[in-house]
Specification:
46% helix, alpha/beta, 9 strands, nine-stranded mixed beta sheet
Length: 313
């Protein structure tokens, strides 16, 4: 369904999907943009969830008793955030153990945890952890409790593997619950009203090139819709000074020239994205905050839509 409780800006970014997967190369501000999107959505909706994914390679054994109940919280806590949205941190053990319990394997799960064999189970089938995580997102969406679920995905190197896992598992799981899970997740990713993706980058040649390559890979290898591109760390536009440049201190002249050259380069990279991407392109400017990082409200104030594509009705 189209989430009419959300602003036009949010709908332009997500294209109306109820699950928005945010990815990008490490260091481009992917997590920052995830928080910005959740905060922006929460300004008009009280039903926004930000899902943070813990390291899905972290499956170190933990202590468990001999009872039928595993020593892991199988109900991930949803906490409130001062930005008005809620937050869930998904841990790998929680998702995996919840799956085992749902299939009547609670006592087995406890023993696997206590012996550390859970690591073997988790890696026995390539991609099983990614599939179970996507299944958890599908489950959250199916509750109908949220107008928007923003998911802070892994960096782009793992994101493509993450997104192609369901199709791969369909090839090896011919029958059984894993195949059913893979089919359900594939249906979710193929439904553009349920799931979309945002690629985050910065206006530099290499990150932009890598983002365009990721865009092409997602389009050719998955059915997931890339709804928008987000460009962080844009320099604010500063017009020409009323003072002739020759009146500046020599060091100030050099700093000004460097700054304007960088701004010009950023605009060229931004133009590359706008030219090659036919959906929404958004940008956030660098915020000058001496002594600390900008808060989300400051980032939202620096946010703008460069190229707009309305959500489909």
């Amino acid at each position: 369904m189209l989430n009419t409780g959300l602003s036009d800006e949010v709908l332009a970014i997500t294209q109306g999907a109820s699950i928005c997967l945010v990815t990008g190369k490490g260091g481009v501000g992917k997590s920052t943009f995830s928080r910005l999107l959740a905060n922006l959505a929460a300004r008009t909706s009280k039903n926004v969830l930000l899902v943070r994914l813990s390291d899905f390679t972290d499956l170190a054994p933990i202590d468990a008793d001999a009872s039928d109940r595993p020593a892991v919280d199988t109900s991930p806590e949803i906490s409130s955030n001062r930005g008005g949205y809620r937050v869930m941190n998904l841990e790998p053990k929680t998702v995996l153990i919840e799956y085992l319990i749902d299939h009547g394997l609670g006592s087995v799960a406890s023993k696997l945890l206590s012996t550390g064999i859970i690591n073997v189970v988790a890696t026995a089938i390539p991609g099983i952890r990614d599939l179970l995580l996507l299944g958890k997102l599908k489950q959250l969406d199916a509750t109908g409790d949220f107008d928007l679920i923003v998911v802070d995905l892994p960096a782009s190197g793992h994101a493509l593997t993450f997104l192609t896992t369901p199709a791969g598992l369909l090839e090896i799981a011919r029958v059984g619950p894993l195949r059913t899970q893979a089919e359900d997740v594939m249906a979710m990713l193929e439904d553009h009203k349920r799931a979309s993706c945002v690629i985050v980058t910065i206006p530099e040649e290499t990150p932009v090139t890598e983002s365009l390559e990721l865009l092409d890979s997602i389009r050719t290898r998955t059915a997931l819709k890339v709804a928008s591109l987000a460009v962080n760390q844009i320099l604010p536009h500063i017009g020409a000074s009323s003072q002739p440049i020759e009146h500046f201190d020599p060091d100030a002249q050099k700093a000004w020239d460097f700054r304007q050259q960088k701004f010009s380069s950023q605009m060229q990279q931004l133009s590359r994205l706008v030219d090659k991407f036919d959906e929404t392109v958004v940008a956030t400017e660098i915020v000058d905050t001496p002594g600390g990082r900008p808060d989300t409200d400051q980032l939202i104030d620096s946010f703008s839509i460069i190229k707009h594509r309305s959500a489909n009705p």
